[in-house]
């Protein structure tokens, strides 16, 4: 076994690999970009080395630098994680030339599966069913059109070098074929530098079912059953499960055998996934599944397989790469229970699932009831440079129903403040009747998306708690002095206070009156809610509303607060923060970064006279540029950042000199 390995990745997968390596007594070397210098994977590893600036081309994709760090740190092998360099045969060749082991398959195996058309031809030869279609060399438009007519519409045109759903066009009517072909070729050329396409029969009710395979360097290959990844949004997986609901035993056996044949056909070593598409317009059947592509790496969703087989796939990878045989034979493997994985992302479902960024002011992941694989901690920032994943939440249960109930409970116990997340969307999916019944296909989310992202009304209780919290009335009872315990209690007169909060795009002025010991009346849109606090502490508020005892949790954020109630997060921004009358800060003496990003252009200099509205800083965030201007006329007293620097939201960028008395 290796003594020391380097993990050429970041985030949750780097942390995941480090944990197994540590358990096996293997020392770990992390690598990081400037944006990740203080991140969790760096802290977890035994040592960490800087790669370069934040953009991936200057850091996580730098082959020579990674090999140099292997030499400097004396790492014997490299685990690539997923993404980045994990399916790059040139990287494998460069490592091999430097005498370093790649923890993964051979460069030849990666190349064999790199292009969809060649992979399909290879699989057909190995007796693996492929989607009916044409995947040859002839790219003449008239010839391809004739093939499409033969296959029968609808057809799917796919760029052979495609990935991530790019360069794909569905054609329903022969009249549209040539225009769609041109579009797919153009996209293939633009995204992958390769205009070649293949044509497939388009399946109208497909399920994405993939088989986990494993090979070693002694000619052995096994499969570890299937995962169903049909819950997709725009071809991106959202919730995965294992096994696949409703899977007939004969089909499982046929798919497993086909996947092992596929792996053996390319002398596969290490962890891999054979992705199949199953035509379920007439239910699942062993004669209606087809090879789609092979991923020659560990997948994001591998934990569901680990949960049902009781195996650690990273441990298997390390053993196989160090020359050992596969830990188990096919008949030693079996399925135990059911598992789900949900991908928790910083993204705004209501705004078209726009990736979000932000500093995680508050983060409470449900590690007490689920397996949580995460690369971030409370206080960390989701930057625009990388995948905005916060965590993978994995649950296991004796059966599908129990496991799904656990997934919902885990999502409801998840608390994130400082960035929007898809947690509510994931929870809504868990409650979806079709999904609960196991009636899934890749179109499910698209069909029901509006209902899945619909936002309900904010419960009055939540509005009341937010108001009390923003007025400072929800402080924990401290000390032993009974007077300290009288929350919001001001002598014997009922005091009236107003909270001004922005919530879901509207401003709310909420009146709160103290009624006595820990009792309040909160006035909400004509209604009065009376509420008695029974406990406040550790972020938890317990209260009584007329004989109903309930609880919520609360977290302060940079601009306001978040209330977590009944499994949902509600964000409030204090109006004084927005209107800028908070201690004169936003009144114009300072310029603060409104979001995490990169200081792209900095025109401000110390001592420079500026006029209100003059552009001073251009911040690049989420691949867009945001111009920040002078808040008032004045002179720049100090500049605290430099061009090229990565900043978090709330970072002080520059300050203006105080107004002098003779300023007109
Ligand atoms: P990419 O490599 O771009 O991700 P894939 O070939 O893996 O493309 O397909 C991505 C997704 O597109 C699948 O998971 C499935 O939802 C859909 N898809 C692919 N092929 C077909 C097909 N022949 N019919 C219907 N849907 C398909």
From TrEMBL:
SUPFAM superfamilies: Glutathione synthetase ATP-binding domain-like, PreATP-grasp domain, Rudiment single hybrid motif, Single hybrid motif. Its cofactor is biotin. Keywords: ATP-binding, Biotin, Ligase, Nucleotide-binding, Transit peptide. Residues 1-450 form the Biotin carboxylation domain. It comes from the Bacteria. Residues 120-322 form the ATP-grasp domain. The keyword Zinc does not apply. Pfam families: Biotin_carb_C, Biotin_carb_N, Biotin_lipoyl, BT_MCC_alpha, CPSase_L_D2. InterPro entries: ATP-grasp, BC-like_N, Biotin_BS, Biotin_carboxylase_complex, Biotin_carboxylation_dom, Biotin_COase_C, Biotin_lipoyl, CPAse_ATP-bd. Residues 580-657 form the Lipoyl-binding domain. One of its GO terms (molecular function) is ligase activity. The keyword Ligase applies. PANTHER family: CARBOXYLASE:PYRUVATE/ACETYL-COA/PROPIONYL-COA CARBOXYLASE, METHYLCROTONOYL-COA CARBOXYLASE SUBUNIT ALPHA, MITOCHONDRIAL-RELATED. This is 3-methylcrotonyl-CoA carboxylase.
